[in-house]
Amino acid sequence: MITRRKLLKSSAATGLLVASGGLAAPALSQGTKIRLGYVTPASGPLAAFAEADNFIIDSFLNVAGSDFEVIVKDSQSNPNRAAEVAKELIVDDEINLMLVASTPETTNPVTTTCEAEEIPVISTVAPWQPYFIGQQGNPGDPASWEPFNYGYHFFWGLEDIIQVFTNMWNQLDTNKSVGALYPNDGDGNAWGDPVVGFPPVLAEQGYTLTDTGRYQNLTDDFTAQINAFKQANCEIVTGVPIPPDFTTFWTQAKQQGFVPKAASIGKAILFPVSVEALGDAGHNLSSEVWWSPSHPFSSTLTGQTSSELADEYTASTGRQWTQPIGFIHALFELAQDVAGRVSEVDDGDAVAEAIAATDLSTIVGPIAWNGNGLPPFAAQNIAKTPLVGGQWRLADGGGYDLVVVDNQTAPMIATGGSMEEIS
Length: 423
Fold this sequence. Notes:
Elements: H1 4-7, E1 17-21, E2 34-40, H2 53-64, E3 68-74, H3 79-91, E4 97-101, H4 104-117, E5 121-124, H5 128-132, E6 151-154, H6 158-169, E7 177-181, H7 186-191, H8 198-204, E8 208-211, H9 223-231, E9 236-239, H10 243-255, E10 262-265, H11 272-276, E11 286-289, H12 306-317, H13 324-339, H14 348-356, E12 359-362, E13 365-368, E14 382-383, E15 388-394, E16 400-406
Parallel strand pairs: 2-3, 2-4, 4-5, 5-6, 6-14, 7-8, 7-9, 9-10
Antiparallel strand pairs: 1-3, 11-15, 12-13, 15-16
């Protein structure tokens, strides 16, 4: 079958062209340029995930040279907009490879669009369950789940973050009563799922979970959740709110006299700016750590270590490093690697095959779609990366440092301290 994609001819591109540059990719046809589309939440409540985008793309193009163009589209933190701009990149800009990152609200609509249009796509920064299961026609029927033909994702899974969080909690003396903040979005529904989420694993480990149900993002009153947590004597809080919602919750919790011993929060407190917004109340909040300067990996693009990349970001921007730096950088490492292994970048099937054959040691660790650590249904489309746990600590000179406090799931990543109670 001849698809619309295969009939597209080269034409003047429209959209936001960030830059172009030149990398000697020996397997590329002479004179061919690979066009990369990149969808990112550059504005809206998820914008913190995109803070380092320009730095990373500029770095990539400084190395990559004239063999690449990068066309960036802002999803505005809106799933419908993400799908819309993905279609623009495919139809109007005629990209060869799509890159996308940052929560299922961005990765899923873009991947679904690419599948329909037969365009290869590499995605990251979303746990693999809400990414893979969330795109199935019937998420509640595992027998109906099917792999993607063009979508390839690298990140960790819920099984990893559950283990990291409980490992941190087990360092403390608690009553194992946990309050849950699960929003009505892709992450929240996955984390609270009674089959693949936190509830069954916590129950097996002797934890009691107080889940008041799904709330809408950008909620301005968490009194009901706080009262329920107080009534259940919750000494631990967990969840996956967006940054502004956790700021609201934590501020109201302090005002209403609710101070748990541990608060391990995904998504919302990944970024220094989100913790600094809480003032001193951010001290000893805990989170998953997917990348940090202490990760013992190096870039295939620049040769930099994780520490060197983080230092360059700070020197270039004046801002503290953030976790997405490593994973967005790795997206472009993969793009370079894949481009060097295909002879016809216009052949989406060949590009997808090259992605599937990837075996690359990146700034976030080894990436290979070989099924390691995954159930059979996800083996084709998911590559797992390591995860550890950390706590935000007030720094002597002001601001916060993220300290790795548990590495049982990835011993190669050094710890910088032990878990401490919130006071």
